[in-house]
Amino acid sequence: MTAEEIIARGVPEHVAIIMDGNGRWARNRGLPRTSGHKEGLTSAKKIVAAASKLGIKYITLYTFSTENWKRAQEEVGYLMGLIKGHLRAEFEFYKKNGIKVEHIGDLTGLPADVRNEIINAKKDTEHFIGTTCVLAINYGSRDEIVRCIKKLVNSGETAENINEELISKSLDIPSLPPVDLMIRTGGEERLSNFLLWQCAYAEFLFTDTLWPDYNEEEFFENISKYQTRNRRFGGVPNQ
Ligand code: IPE
Ligand code: IPE
Ligand code: MG
Hints:
The chain has 239 residues and is of the alpha/beta class. It has nine helices and six strands; from the N terminus they run H-E-H-H-E-H-H-E-H-E-H-H-E-E-H.
């Protein structure tokens, strides 16, 4: 299906992706896991550009989880370097596509240099009005919810005032809409602590494709599959 055909049928407002399978992609080629991450970054750029082409408002990418610190120091260090280098070098990519960079996750738990690149990328792209690319770095959904509750308690919020809207607005990005479509590559069918609150009514698509092999064509296929889903939100259609 072409971009024009997909756009005509109405695109999801918020797509989230668990970019999984980099390590296996590398192992299959006898390469170190880090090569898989390097190749995965190329895929991520292609998919962000594809989302922008379709006019998708928000694309959230699971880049580094709060649990990923358990990995070997060498791999963690490589990933941090990759994130930092990308954010520093890719302003032109974001500018060309009018992409605004946002971040979810615990900034305070990141190395200072990575934290600063995230802050700079957000600032440099804040006036772009195309797709918002939300990078989940040092992100865990439970951690986000705990930090949200702390914010509410610290601001003296009363129990009577607490409702779903206030909680949504107190998460890392107040204006982030609920996820419409969650895609996970790499064959696993789980959320791995990603966007638990925001996925309450998301549609899910799982593909065995390893993230470095995922491309615009499959992304377009996934979006068109989403467009055939019947979202009921607990109601009864045509009543
Ligand atoms: C996903 O790929 C990228 C990150 C978690 C940073 P993996 O590194 O988890 O790849 P597999 O699952 O081991 O193949
Ligand atoms: C989820 O993938 C995290 C990212 C893609 C950044 P993992 O590979 O870490 O998840 P599990 O361990 O298979 O659940
Ligand atoms: Mg994995």
